[in-house]
Each structure stands twice: as structure tokens, then as C-alpha cells.
Write a structure and sequence with these properties.
Layout (H helix, E strand, L loop, with lengths): L1 H9 L11 H5 L22 E2 L12 E8 L12 E3 L2 E5 L5 E5 L5 E5 L5 H5 L12 E3 L2 E5 L4 E6 L5 E6 L14 E3 L2 E5 L10 E6 L5 E6 L12 H7 L11 E2 L6 E4 L4 E5 L3 E2 L21 E6 L5 E6 L15 E7 L2 E9 L4 E6 L5 E6 L6 E4 L6 E3 L10 E3 L13 E3 L4 E7 L4 E3 L45 E7 L4 E9 L6 E4 L3 E5 L4 E6 L5 E6 L10 E5 L2 E8 L11 H7 L2 E7 L22
Parallel strand pairs: 1-33
Antiparallel strand pairs: 2-39, 3-4, 4-5, 5-6, 7-8, 8-9, 9-10, 11-12, 12-13, 13-14, 15-18, 16-17, 17-19, 19-20, 21-22, 22-23, 23-24, 25-26, 27-30, 28-29, 29-31, 31-32, 33-34, 34-35, 35-36, 37-38, 38-39
Length: 608
């Protein structure tokens, strides 16, 4: 009798949800029967590779809309990745409003509005009002609120459990990144790198909201003492009274986690102010300015620095290193290496040893003029002296928009390729504002750049390295990259912008949401287009995910920048412009959104 009882208890009941704990998050890419999407990048290593394969090359053309859900007020892009658990999709709008809907029908289960002071908050946000997602753990949903609050809600009801204060808009910092879960902790960083701020990320106890540790990415005022030996080491790479200008190094995206080594990997933002001439006495020698434009690896229990790698020492071109970091085990030179990979904003694809931080390789995946290459022995960039700018404007590629920005890439272990949404050609004219005073600056002027360079003739650009852009120049380009051989396997044009995330699956499919609203499927190996659909949304597109419910596989995405009520715009027009969550499945027959037409309400839920 005891044996039978033990067997019965070990087998989950039909339809019973898997508990979202450390084991479930670690094995999220192996739980094929559940088909949930439990974290931002699906796996702790942020691969965005799903084992689901019901949708494959022979039937992908049968994809159609199953249902749509109006997510709420717009006014910003929908950059969030929806999460799926227990037949429920959890999403967040650009204004941090959280919703839970039935994954099979789109019927709303609950909705929670943090009531952000929108005017005060948006005035402090760098690059638009955005929110990139949520975290799930122990029946709680963790919400980064734009105004600096971190909230824990009950997953079943949306009721608040606890609230923690991460940062303050009064200090020029906001929350825009999806939190990550690691060993019972919620990890999140604060945006604000284009303002006079000091970057950091922090860990909070997932059950209570208590702050466990905090890691600053640049050193503070030495007179107040250093928080750690890492900060003391970093201070030696700065000079003058850098702390009065903040230093930068904001953490606004890009975290991955290795449960085996218990290391967190966090990407840091650009230096502040941008021009090195405003941070150092002699730009010919310069300083590294740790830990800006870097990947830092810290222990999950303590926040203690284990290693760092700086992509751009002394960064002065806004080359944040906060782009997604993918963890994988690769065979390199006949040896299996535990690696961390990043397609950086600066145009180079990096492969590092994720246990030690050892540099393995880096090559350009986009056209680059700021550096001639990366020294394959030291891992330091070989900077073009021609891009050292002063009062005269200098064109540099990539520009501040980057060759790869926030839009997520994916890694398919079957093909061994990383699929990167890139911008084919991005250039910006840089010039120093020697009269820079942060207390008098506003907008782009907070960066320390001279943004009024009209009438000035830019110096000629330096020599370029990397692939030439596809015909059409400044096009969004999907690049399939081989990280072992450090070469482009194939690439295709996507549209006139740089955004649009990717998703790969076990059925050798690659999905991408194009910036203009198209959902596209390719063969993951060769890049052959297999399916394309205009979703009815035209901009503000977030990355795609896939999940399973009741034995059926679906593709989901959010999109639409929408609008808010304003003089001259009718309430009907504003409603019709609001962003939406779209769910696609085989033989879906629902009507796609039409521009200027409000979506139909969700159908009744047959499961209630």
C-alpha cells in the first residue's frame, strides 16, 4: 500500500501546473510536456530555444491568429517578453500594467495597475517608455515598475505580496528591464546611463523583498569609502572627480545565470558623460573606467565579483554591453568549452569562458570603424585613432543605436548558430561639448555631446572592418552567426529598422518578428523563408515566444506603440491604436487586427 501511494504521489495529476522553482527554471528547455515559457530568455542561459516541434516546416504555412487581447494604453514600444505558466499568459505593458489571460482563449483573468506618475517618470526615462518583462517564481509574478518599485504579485489573483524600492526617478533612474530569478533571489538593475547616475544591480529575497546585496558597476566618492575590493580596483581606472558626473554603467538589460557555477552574468552600460575628454586629462592615454561597457560575473549568494571582461575600455561611443548573453557548451578546437556569447552593440561577436572570464574570440558581425579588430591574445580592441573625437564631429560606426541593441537573439544547439537581429549600417557624428554642465543639460545634451554640429564638416571616417551591409544600407538584417568559426553563415534583410527579436525551435524553425509587424518563419539551417504574415500591427514590436496548451503549440507576441488621449484625437481612434497581444496556432481563423479598427472582444472561455 505504501509503495502504491508513493507511486501515486510521484506522478503529477493531469493538468496540474509544474511548480516554478529553481529546478523548473533550470530545466525549462527540457519540459516538453509542459510547454511553458517561464523566464525572459526561456532558460537561465537565455537561449530562447524551445523543444516544442509540433509546428514545423510542412505545416508552418497553416499558422493563423487564434485570438488577440488589447493590452492597454500605448505611448511606447511593447518590448516585453510574455511568460506562460499554468495555461496562463502573463504580460506587462510599457507602463508596467500587468495582466494575466487564459492562454487558450485570451480571456482576462486579472489585471493590476501600479498607477505610475507618468509625467514625472517619462521625463526621466532615456529612450522612450518601455518595460521588457516579468519574472515568475513560487506562484508569484515579479514586476519592474517604471518609477523604481519592484513588486511581487500573487500569480493566481494579481494581489500585491510585497514591494521593494530599487531606485528613484528623482535620482534620474528608472526600471525598464525584466527581472531574473537565481537561487531564490530576484535580480534587477536600474536604467539611467545617459544621465549623471551611478550604475548598479541588486538582489532581493524572492519571498520577502528584502535586499540581499547590491553591486555597483562604477566606483563612488572615495571619501565615503569603497563598498568592496572590486570598487577599490575600479577607482584606480578613473581620475578627477568622476563621481560628481555619475560615471554611468547602468544595467538596463542583459542578465544570464549558470546554476552549476552559481555565477550571475550582468552586462553594464556606457560611461557617463560620453566623451572621454570630459572624464580624463589626457585622452591620448585614457583610462579603462571599470566596469563600464563590460560583462561582470558575480556569485549569486554574495554579489562578490569573480571576473570581468571589458569590451570597450574607456568607452566614449555609447557602446553599452547590456545586450543579451547566451550560455552554451561549444566544441572549440577539439575541446568542450563552457562559454558565454554576446553580439555587442559595438559590432563584435564575443565568446568568453563563462567560468573564468577568459577571452576566447571576437570578430565583427557588422560594419565597424571604431576599432580595427580585437587582439586575439589580449582580448582588447585595436582602436582606430581616427575616431578619437574633439570639438570637430567625427562619424563612427556603429553609432549610438548599435549594430545589435535590446532585441533578443536566440541559439539553436541543433544548428550551432546564433540568430541576431542587427542593423546593417549605423553611423553617428560625435563631437565634444566642452561647456558641458550636467545641471544645465537636458535631453541628448546630458551625454556631454555637442548635438548642434550643423555647418561643421565631419572628419573622414577611419578604415572599416566587418561585412559590408546588404543592398539598401541601413536595413534591419537577420544574421545567422557561427560562434565557433566566428563567421556569418547566412543573413537576410528584414526591414528599415534594427529591432525584432528571434526564437528557434527543435523543429528546425526560426521565427522573427519584423519591425514593421510581420511574423516570419525561416529554416534555421539555411535561412530559407517558409512563412510570412502581416500581423496588422505596424511598429513597437516585441520578441516572439512559443508555448503549448492542451497539447497544441502556439506562437505569441506583443506589438504596437499605440497612443494616449490628446487634443484632436478621438477616443475611438485612441482605442483602436492600443497595442495588442497576438497568439497564433495551426489553422487559427480569428481576424487579424486592422489599422484603425478596435479588436473584437475575446470569446467566452469554454474551460470555465
Amino acid at each position: 500500500m505504501r509503495c502504491l501511494l508513493a507511486i501515486a504521489l510521484s506522478v503529477p495529476l493531469f493538468g496540474q501546473a509544474t511548480r516554478v522553482d529553481d529546478a523548473a527554471l533550470k530545466n525549462s528547455a527540457k519540459l516538453t510536456s509542459d510547454g511553458d515559457w517561464l523566464s525572459y530568455g526561456l532558460t537561465p542561459g537565455e537561449t530562447r530555444y524551445s523543444p516544442l516541434k509540433q509546428i514545423e516546416a510542412s505545416n508552418v504555412k497553416r499558422l493563423g491568429l487564434v485570438w488577440s487581447y488589447e493590452v492597454g494604453d500605448g505611448g511606447g514600444d511593447q518590448e516585453a517578453t510574455p511568460l506562460v505558466w499554468n495555461n496562463t499568459i502573463f504580460g506587462v505593458t510599457n507602463w508596467s500594467i500587468v495582466f494575466a489571460v487564459d492562454a487558450r482563449t485570451g480571456k482576462e483573468k486579472w489585471r493590476w495597475d501600479p498607477l505610475v506618475n507618468r509625467k514625472a517618470t517619462s521625463d526621466k526615462m532615456c529612450c522612450g517608455v518601455v518595460n521588457r518583462g516579468l519574472a515568475l517564481y513560487h506562484n508569484k509574478v515579479y514586476v519592474p515598475v517604471n518609477d523604481g518599485r519592484l513588486e511581487a504579485l500573487e500569480a493566481d489573483t494579481g494581489k500585491p505580496v510585497w514591494e521593494a524600492r530599487v531606485c528613484w526617478v528623482q535620482h534620474e533612474q528608472t526600471l525598464t528591464m525584466a527581472p531574473r530569478i537565481a537561487k531564490g533571489k530576484v535580480i534587477v538593475g536600474a536604467a539611467g546611463g545617459d544621465r549623471p547616475t551611478r550604475g548598479f544591480f541588486a538582489a532581493y529575497d524572492a519571498e520577502t523583498g528584502r535586499e540581499v546585496w547590491r553591486f555597483y558597476t562604477v566606483p563612488g566618492d572615495p571619501a565615503k569609502g569603497f563598498e568592496s575590493s572590486a570598487m577599490r580596483k575600479a577607482a584606480a581606472t578613473w581620475e578627477g572627480e568622476w563621481w560628481k558626473l555619475g560615471g554611468g554603467g547602468a544595467v538596463w538589460d542583459g542578465i544570464s545565470y549558470d546554476p552549476d557555477s552559481e555565477l550571475l552574468y550582468v552586462g553594464t552600460g556606457n560611461a557617463e558623460p560620453w566623451p572621454q575628454a570630459l572624464r580624463t586629462k589626457d585622452v591620448s592615454t585614457g583610462r579603462d573606467n571599470l566596469y563600464v561597457a563590460s560583462i561582470v560575473a558575480v556569485h549569486v549568494d554574495t554579489g562578490e565579483l569573480k571576473w570581468h571582461y571589458q569590451m570597450v575600455p574607456g568607452d566614449e561611443w555609447d557602446y553599452d554591453s547590456v545586450q543579451q548573453m547566451i550560455l552554451a557548451d561549444l566544441n572549440i578546437n577539439g575541446r568542450t568549452r563552457k562559454v558565454i556569447m554576446q553580439a555587442n552593440k559595438n559590432g563584435f561577436f564575443y565568446v568568453l569562458d563563462r567560468v573564468t572570464g577568459e577571452f576566447i574570440s571576437a570578430q565583427p558581425f557588422s560594419k565597424v570603424t571604431w576599432a580595427k579588430g580585437v587582439d586575439q591574445k589580449t582580448g582588447r580592441p585595436i582602436i582606430n585613432t581616427e575616431v578619437k573625437y574633439g570639438k570637430d564631429p567625427v562619424p563612427v560606426s556603429p553609432g549610438g543605436g548599435g549594430a545589435h541593441n535590446w532585441s533578443p537573439m536566440s541559439f539553436n544547439p541543433q544548428t550551432g548558430l546564433v540568430y541576431v537581429p542587427t542593423r546593417g549600417w549605423d553611423t553617428f557624428n560625435y563631437a565634444v561639448n566642452y561647456d558641458f554642465k550636467p545641471e544645465r543639460a537636458s535631453g541628448v545634451g546630458l551625454t556631454g555631446l555637442n548635438v548642434n554640429t550643423r555647418g561643421l564638416t565631419p572628419q573622414p571616417p577611419g578604415p572599416a572592418t566587418g561585412p559590408e551591409p546588404l543592398e539598401g544600407g541601413n536595413l534591419g538584417t537577420l544574421v545567422a552567426y557561427d560562434p565557433v568559426k566566428q563567421e556569418i553563415r547566412w543573413r537576410v534583410p528584414v526591414g528599415n529598422s534594427r529591432y525584432g527579436g528571434t526564437l528557434s525551435t527543435a523543429s528546425n524553425l526560426l521565427f522573427q518578428v519584423a519591425p514593421n509587424g510581420r511574423l516570419i518563419a525561416y529554416s534555421a539551417g539555411k535561412g530559407e523563408p517558409l512563412f510570412e504574415m502581416a500581423t496588422g500591427l505596424r511598429n513597437g514590436m516585441g520578441p516572439p515566444i512559443t508555448f503549448a496548451a492542451d497539447g497544441k503549440q502556439y506562437i505569441a507576441l506583443m506589438g504596437g506603440s499605440g497612443g494616449t488621449p490628446s487634443p484632436g484625437r478621438s477616443a475611438e481612434a485612441t482605442t483602436a491604436m492600443k497595442p495588442q497581444l497576438l497568439v497564433f496556432g495551426l489553422d487559427g481563423k480569428a481576424e487579424l487586427p486592422q489599422p484603425g479598427v478596435a479588436p473584437a472582444p475575446a470569446s467566452p472561455d469554454p474551460h470555465q
